[in-house]
Automatic annotation (TrEMBL):
Keywords from the UniProt entry: ATP-binding, Coenzyme A biosynthesis, Cytoplasm, Kinase, Metal-binding, Nucleotide-binding, Potassium, Transferase
Binding locations of K(+): D129
PANTHER family per record: TYPE III PANTOTHENATE KINASE
NCBIfam families linked to this entry: baf, PRK13321.1
Organism, as annotated: Bacillus daqingensis
Pfam name, any one: Pan_kinase
Any GO molecular function: pantothenate kinase activity
Cofactor binding notes: A monovalent cation. Ammonium or potassium.
Subunit organization: Homodimer.
The name this protein goes by in its record: Type III pantothenate kinase
Recorded catalytic activity of this chain's protein: (R)-pantothenate + ATP = (R)-4'-phosphopantothenate + ADP + H(+)
Active site: D109
Amino acid sequence: MNIVADAGNTVMTVGVFEGEDLLASWEWKTDRGRTVDEYGLMLHQMMALYSIPSEEIEGSLVCSVVPDMDTLLEQVLEQYVQAPVYFVGPGVKTGLNILYENPREVGADRIANAVAGKALYGSPLIIVDFGTAITFCYLDEAGRYLGGAIMPGLDLAMEALAEKASRLPKVRAEASPRVIGRSTAEALQSGYRYGGLGAVEGIISRIRRESGTNATVVAAGTAAEWAASESRLIDHADPLLTLKGLQFIYEKNSGLYR
């Protein structure tokens, strides 16, 4: 068994795999203020909840877009499961041909998404990951990573609006029952979901037009299932795509853990 973890700016998603099988997954709020021991206790509690013995964990692989969390996560995993820890980055094989101008600029989470997307859905492929930011990745017909787009996430945009517009209330981040909101709260909720989805669909359409392909689209992350249910442009919802990509990468690098 092994652990994979995706450390985002808002949420950290953790999974335990045995080969191709995902045995358990959970989310924690990304909190730079917690100590190694606090996270270690949380890890042991979650593993006990799913009846996963820590002594059977052979290694861990992490992708992180929060540099402040890297050392903390490394210490948590090394001390509390006592197994080697690696991060997606230099020295870790992904099998992905990245054609970005500077491949080192591609976020580790986007790399994991691309690895899983290519393996599970083929190419050409557009991956839309709903998180603190909404990221778009495009893989061409040969499965090469060409690049993509990044826009503010749905929750981030709503928080910024509530902070900067003093007369607009902060509302629950959920879909409005109708696009034409009949109150300020409904209007904000409509803009939150349907405005964000419209922007996502616009970028998908432009990527398809620019690439000259009718690329398959897979949604990942927190809003994946909702977005796929509302959009005719999104073919698949795979909320845990990043964890699956990390597991593919873990398997490619199994020699590091022996």
